[in-house]
Amino acid sequence: MAHFLARILGVSARRYVAGVPRTKIHPVFCMNCNITLSSVGSEKSPPIVKLEGKTKKRPRVLSSSSEDDAENVPEKKKQSPKKKKETPKDSPKKQEKTPEKKPEVKEEVPSPETNTKEKESPKKVFTMFQKNSKEGESKNGNEYDPGKKKYHPIEDAIWKQNEKVPYLALSRTFQLIEETSGRLKMIDILSNYFRSVIVLSPDELLPSIFLCLNQLAPAHEGLELGIAETTLMKAIAQSTGRSMSQLKSDIQSIGDIGIVAEKSRSNQRMMFTPAALNVTGVFQKLQEIARMTGNQAMAKKVDKIQSMFVACKHSEARFLIRSLAGKLRIGLAEQSVLQALAQACTDTPPNQGYPPKILSNLKKLGEAGFKAKVDENALLVKTAYCECPDYGQIVPVLLSNGPLALPEKCKMLPGTPVKPMLAQPTKDIQDVFQRFDNIDFTCEWKYDGERAQIHIKDDGTVSIFSRNQENNTTKYPDIIARIDSVKGDQVKSCILDCEAVAWDVEKQQIMPFQILSTRKRKDASEAEIKIQVCVFMFDLLYFNGQPLVKEPFFERRRLLRENFIQVEGTWKFATSLDTNDINDLQNFLDESVKGNCEGLMVKSLKQDATYEIAKRSRNWLKLKKDYLSGVGDSLDLVVIGGYRGKGKRTGTYGGFLLACYDAENEEYQSICKIGTGFSDEALQQHTEFLSQHIIPNPRSYYRFDSSHQPDEWFDAVQVWEVKCADLSLSPVHRAAMGLVDPNKGISLRFPRYIRIRDDKKVEEATSAQQVVDMYSNQDQIKNQKNTSRSVEDDFY
Ligand SMILES: Nc1ncnc2c1ncn2[C@@H]1O[C@H](COP(=O)(O)OP(=O)(O)OP(=O)(O)O)[C@@H](O)[C@H]1O
Ligand SMILES: [Mg+2]
Ligand SMILES: [Mg+2]
């Protein structure tokens, strides 16, 4: 039993049985973390390893995880024709992926307690690192040298109960994740780290999660890093004695400041050894750096960075510098972090004390049952995160009560933004009738402004959040000032879903989105405001202490209309029409266009009419005038490269390389070159902005064909909305490669620039899957399913 308990924890069984609650958990360094050992085995009976349900004998000497990768990489990944076609020549990720010398790790001699019951256990057991393991050898210069005893990367990353988590433990986790391509494996690695933290130092779970996401606080607090590369170079130069030009040329050739920082560190000999970094300490210092303002701020930032940098060991420098630069670049999506968290809480239920009480039912679950339990918990964690996107509220509940308590304790609450419901595109009125056959629906004008989620708390505080949970409260003092006069007497607290639209006071009409975007983005004073805004309310998500998201829209709309007052030109309900007559709908669409709207939003009223947080739902359809009988919608793409202009465009970029975002593989895939739709001012503006984001080499996570090599590569920092005539298969572009055709991607024909989408983060750009959906929904593709047309993109 004790042995089993120890295994659940990933603790050395022998040490535990010896009666000393030694808690040296090897956080991530369980190289075989993808292996489910059902028994540690003994001299006579070698350990049995279950791989994806299969059982096979495992040799005595275990080797590194790379050996297991082939078998454990999720099927989809292994066979996916979407396999990365090419990686840029000097891609740091690729360089790092050269197979590591496989360390030999000997299995611990098993405890006599091993019994048959335990063999059925679904739990994962992690082979402990032995002291003589060479696993910590780095390809980046920090070789572990047992003779010289420089330091021991593994020992340094181990910690005991209630000790601070060494930052090295987290860096090693990042390093392993970076070297892994399978999503499930990444989740396993991260979940193992979380398990160790849960058991040993639960207070550090929250900073660990934030560091994994490279966030310093929830989005609505607006605390961001993103220190300029030159500032980071200065800090590295000052702490290592290397010159700026040496660093510059290294960055040019390696393409990643993190690796350059790590290499530079390893050349440095220290007079004395600074105290080791720990997770909380690093997190707090990053927060302090982000909060520094004023004229001395830059120098103070460099000082603080240096003080951490000189204490870095092994791969710590790489990830610290990348965190500071604003991108961790290990390919870890937020959904994977949430999944890993749920898995860790299932594997190692929090708040069990130390040693944790073994949940006997966990033992009985079996492999499939365990997986189902993980999925159940993942749903709870992910749902809680949608309703309350604030780890500061979720993590304490997980730690003290577990995932089951989340629905009760992490509810939607005014003051914390909710992830908004999104709509599916349609390109023809027939689509609407097909979808809502025999279902009551309503049509609303689709306003072209900025989504505004307006929260009123019990104490009267009002906040306004954007579609990606950023706090826009100080952008709209005019909206805040109106609240008292437009809310009914009964309203105590609420969350309204609205669109804020620029309003022409003289002509009493809606103005285009471009006008709205000229408003100051932060700290606007009412006196300065030149562009008036009219708020169009379309939903009520929370009312007087009760979430309404499970109520049908019909009911939510009734409450909305009963409790708010309309004021012409400032505060209105979205114009709507409940109809099931095709002619009425067509007329209403025409009216919306005359009213300067983009088209209609069509929403189910009673059946399937809940508010689906964070979901692009089929219960909301968008019908945009510009895309009728075309591709249905515009795309929001990331600009990753620029081509210098010729002729009239000399001095600015004349064209750009755009990419969609593939969240599954966390990569940007080229989708088109674009050269039309830009005014001279827009080109000037883009050239100025993008020249601050030039990178010497493409990121390792950019997918493109060498024939599209731009004159300059850019960091993925900006999203542009783009229209096109249609989408076609392309032998050269990489968007959605493997999803429709094994060797072809999808590209846009006649792409045309519309505008910058400042309200979307690059990870919120149109996804590879959305590109596939748009491609497949085109009439010609629907009609000739088997005919694949290959067309090069149109450019110049
Ligand atoms: N009556 C309305 N009901 C719901 N949303 C509306 C309405 N009028 C305008 N909108 C806006 O329309 C948006 C949805 O359509 P749009 O194509 O503009 O989305 P988007 O922001 O480009 O995002 P995506 O293309 O990812 O869906 C909503 O997020 C909201 O801001
Ligand atoms: Mg919009
Ligand atoms: Mg859009």
UniProtKB/TrEMBL annotation:
<protein>
    <recommendedName>
        <fullName>DNA ligase</fullName>
        <ecNumber>6.5.1.1</ecNumber>
    </recommendedName>
</protein>
<dbReference type="Pfam" id="PF04679">
    <property type="entry name" value="DNA_ligase_A_C"/>
</dbReference>
<dbReference type="InterPro" id="IPR016059">
    <property type="entry name" value="DNA_ligase_ATP-dep_CS"/>
</dbReference>
<keyword id="KW-0234">DNA repair</keyword>
<feature type="compositionally biased region" description="Polar residues">
    <location>
        <begin position="776"/>
        <end position="789"/>
    </location>
</feature>
<dbReference type="GO" id="GO:0005739">
    <property type="term" value="C:mitochondrion"/>
</dbReference>
<dbReference type="InterPro" id="IPR012340">
    <property type="entry name" value="NA-bd_OB-fold"/>
</dbReference>
<dbReference type="GO" id="GO:0005524">
    <property type="term" value="F:ATP binding"/>
</dbReference>
<dbReference type="GO" id="GO:0003677">
    <property type="term" value="F:DNA binding"/>
</dbReference>
<comment type="function">
    <text>DNA ligase that seals nicks in double-stranded DNA during DNA replication, DNA recombination and DNA repair.</text>
</comment>
<feature type="domain" description="ATP-dependent DNA ligase family profile">
    <location>
        <begin position="526"/>
        <end position="662"/>
    </location>
</feature>
<comment type="similarity">
    <text>Belongs to the ATP-dependent DNA ligase family.</text>
</comment>
<keyword id="KW-0547">Nucleotide-binding</keyword>
<dbReference type="GO" id="GO:0006310">
    <property type="term" value="P:DNA recombination"/>
</dbReference>
<keyword id="KW-0233">DNA recombination</keyword>
<dbReference type="GO" id="GO:0005634">
    <property type="term" value="C:nucleus"/>
</dbReference>
<dbReference type="InterPro" id="IPR036599">
    <property type="entry name" value="DNA_ligase_N_sf"/>
</dbReference>
<dbReference type="InterPro" id="IPR012309">
    <property type="entry name" value="DNA_ligase_ATP-dep_C"/>
</dbReference>
<dbReference type="InterPro" id="IPR012310">
    <property type="entry name" value="DNA_ligase_ATP-dep_cent"/>
</dbReference>
<dbReference type="GO" id="GO:0051301">
    <property type="term" value="P:cell division"/>
</dbReference>
<feature type="compositionally biased region" description="Basic and acidic residues">
    <location>
        <begin position="132"/>
        <end position="149"/>
    </location>
</feature>
<dbReference type="GO" id="GO:0071897">
    <property type="term" value="P:DNA biosynthetic process"/>
</dbReference>
<keyword id="KW-0132">Cell division</keyword>
<dbReference type="InterPro" id="IPR012308">
    <property type="entry name" value="DNA_ligase_ATP-dep_N"/>
</dbReference>
<keyword id="KW-0539">Nucleus</keyword>
<dbReference type="InterPro" id="IPR000977">
    <property type="entry name" value="DNA_ligase_ATP-dep"/>
</dbReference>
<feature type="region of interest" description="Disordered">
    <location>
        <begin position="776"/>
        <end position="796"/>
    </location>
</feature>
<dbReference type="GO" id="GO:0006281">
    <property type="term" value="P:DNA repair"/>
</dbReference>
<keyword id="KW-0131">Cell cycle</keyword>
<keyword id="KW-0436">Ligase</keyword>
<feature type="compositionally biased region" description="Basic and acidic residues">
    <location>
        <begin position="87"/>
        <end position="123"/>
    </location>
</feature>
<dbReference type="Pfam" id="PF01068">
    <property type="entry name" value="DNA_ligase_A_M"/>
</dbReference>
<keyword id="KW-0235">DNA replication</keyword>
<dbReference type="GO" id="GO:0003910">
    <property type="term" value="F:DNA ligase (ATP) activity"/>
</dbReference>
<feature type="region of interest" description="Disordered">
    <location>
        <begin position="41"/>
        <end position="149"/>
    </location>
</feature>
<dbReference type="GO" id="GO:1903461">
    <property type="term" value="P:Okazaki fragment processing involved in mitotic DNA replication"/>
</dbReference>
<keyword id="KW-0227">DNA damage</keyword>
<dbReference type="Pfam" id="PF04675">
    <property type="entry name" value="DNA_ligase_A_N"/>
</dbReference>
<keyword id="KW-0067">ATP-binding</keyword>
<dbReference type="InterPro" id="IPR050191">
    <property type="entry name" value="ATP-dep_DNA_ligase"/>
</dbReference>
